[in-house]
Sequence to fold (388 residues):
Amino acid sequence: MRLLHTSDWHLGRTFHGASLIEAQRAVLQEIIDITINQQVDVVLISGDIYDRALPHVDAVQLCNWVLRELRATGASIVITSGNHDSASRLGFGADLLDSAGVHIIADTQRMLQPVLRDAGDHQVAVYGIPYLEPRMVMERLGVAKASHEAVVQAAIAQIDEHLEQLRAGQKPVVSIAMAHLFAAGGIGSDSERELSTGNLDVVPAELFEHFDYSALGHLHGRQKVKEHVRYSGSPLAYSFSEATQRKGVWLIDTSASGIESIEEILLPVPKKLAILKGKLAELLADPDLESAVGAWCQVTLTDSERPADAMATIRTRFPDTVVLNFAPEGTGEKEQPASYAERMAKATSTEQVVRDFVEHVRERAADDPEREVIDSVIQATREAQASQ
Fold:
């Protein structure tokens, strides 16, 4: 049997304010095409279908479309909820959708109801573990400590008991786990929402050693934590920290003896990310940066002073610049300038106070015409006060 592992679609997400709906539609179409061309039997989606608990109507319509198209390929679909999803909303109608071949596991009651598929000489049992918020499920799972490790361990212990009974049957059983969590050894990205602070969200990967394959979600970089414990990552980059990641999915083939093979299939990039750094004039003229013209750009300017209208100017060549930083060259080597408070304390005139304020808020000193305007306004104010 062949399975496809994907996760973290985050339907409805924006990229620094720009809509990603069409980019998401394009990459989901690629997943549909892979499902057809590779003759996938089961599609596993390991959480964070949506980017927020109350998704926009466009995101819901996109989800409806992709699930319909995936199901039309003949593949079954298994979905678990993630920390961005509303489990109750995602799981609405789950019992009815089972009969349509779309299996949504968004609560602890359905954890012990594996999706079973017959593969001739063996069975494939897919156990879904929804995202478990410790304080919400600890009593239900019978644990005393409100930690991700404790609740996941309790959930897996229950699944192990059920799996042991299932394996007592006549056919060999290949077990697949789905979960949305931070497994120890995984590498995160800036676009993931922290599950908790202080590494309290980390779950040992060893908890999944009893499963033949574990399809994880939450981390956006596709990676292997252990040979059979893997993240598919998000199909699109959702932060500049993911600029060098190659997005894709995992194809898993099973046999009566277990996992036969695991193959990566890369996804195309609808719009690239580019991280640029340098002086404004140099960035505008550098021919080697032509590939960044159509990309989402994060630009760091190293000019000694912040250029006037920097964003508008950089966008004349890189129109999709969405992040602009300023880091003057050599500031780490030279003596640090006086702080704004220190400059205010040393100012000897109203003109100097205003000039220092202008330089502080825009990181560039007032030029001669601007200083003339400042001085003239202050002088006019003084004359008006004197005439009263």
